[in-house]
Design goal:
Two copies of one chain form a homodimer.
Chain A: H1 2-10, H2 17-26, E1 28-32, E2 37-39, E3 48-53, E4 56-62, E5 65-72, E6 77-78, H3 81-86, E7 93-96, E8 100-105, H4 107-116, H5 120-144, H6 147-157, H7 161-164, H8 167-174, H9 178-195
Helix pairs in contact in A: 1-2, 6-9, 8-9
Chain lengths: 196, 196
């Protein structure tokens, strides 16, 4: 698993081999079972994660119903920014949909790494800006899209998800009932077949 | 207007009076007219802004129709993160809905400020993380909400908006036709009246 971690850290192309070593040696890995939670509603988030192996979802319970708002797979960072920065309670759950391996970071570890590799401060800022950009794009894309368009975006951006997660969660994510989702999925796959 | 700018910079409570002076002296202000654009679809964003005075919206054109995805008022930062960081073309328009005053920043100005006030690097990172948190919260909130709930969130978070922007833009923002919006607005205001 250290090798997968090294590959992940190495994917940030601005790091020298020595810097990659320092980070890999200091990264804590967490092995979780399917169904386990990394964060629950009401808890204050003190850690941030990145997925090395596995699939994780974020959901909110509204009127007793689970609504899936995000999926995370290999390479994705997971941070509950507001809870972690302001210390307020999380409104959402983060749950493993498979047995997973994640890196676990926290403020003091990040501060320590920055002390050893000062230019990491700027590099982390740029990574957070990229994440903010992805969220911004996802938000405006979601706002202007129909459920069918959201489904097409999902299979374009995270094509392996559809085979990894229960279909009812994808329905919840694009904001339709499981029945509507079945119709949408059929229609989209028929269009894809016609194009190929 | 320098006084409004000083108040804005001063609202970041971690800065000393001397640091506020340095930033105020180096901040460029831009005065724009109602209808003017800060960014258009297809352009590469090289600047970031913060609203000192006025109201600004972000919108996307989809199938020939304008869809409003964000409103910004006094104190709000405006950054097209993805375009600015990756250099790709903006997918959205940023347009002033009133005569506005905004601060204008860019990478080299930020680098210069950090060179003069090194701890600004971390402080900016934390501010970007807060922004990312707001976007994350807004995204999951939007995903699980009905148009009526979105309207209630809007009047709770940005209460002055409803009197400042054309109602058709608010309808577009919460994702309904102007007709449905009229009904939603009436219903929500009746409920508020009953509660008071």
């Amino acid at each position: 698993m250290k090798e997968a971690l090294r590959q992940f850290i190495d994917s940030f192309q601005f790091l020298t081999p020595e810097e990659v070593d320092i980070i890999v040696d200091n990264t804590v890995l967490k092995f979780t079972k399917k169904g386990e939670y990394l964060l629950k509603e009401g808890e204050v988030s003190k850690e941030c994660f990145a997925v090395i192996k596995g699939c994780i979802r974020e959901f909110v319970i509204k009127d007793g119903v689970e609504k899936t708002v995000s999926f995370f797979t290999e390479g994705d960072p997971i941070t509950a920014f507001t809870s972690e920065i302001t210390g307020c309670q999380s409104k959402s759950y983060i749950q493993c949909l498979e047995d997973c391996v994640v890196t676990v970071g926290n403020d003091s570890l990040i501060d320590e790494m920055i002390q050893r590799i000062p230019r990491l401060e700027k590099l982390i800022r740029v990574e957070v800006e990229k994440e903010a950009g992805k969220m911004q794009d996802r938000m405006s894309d979601f706002m202007i899209s129909t459920p069918e368009e959201r489904f097409v975006t999902l299979i374009n951006n995270q094509p392996n998800l559809i085979h990894r997660v229960p279909q009812v969660l994808i329905a919840s994510y694009i904001g339709v009932t499981p029945e509507s989702y079945s119709r949408i999925k059929k229609r989209v796959f028929e269009k894809i077949k016609q194009h190929n």
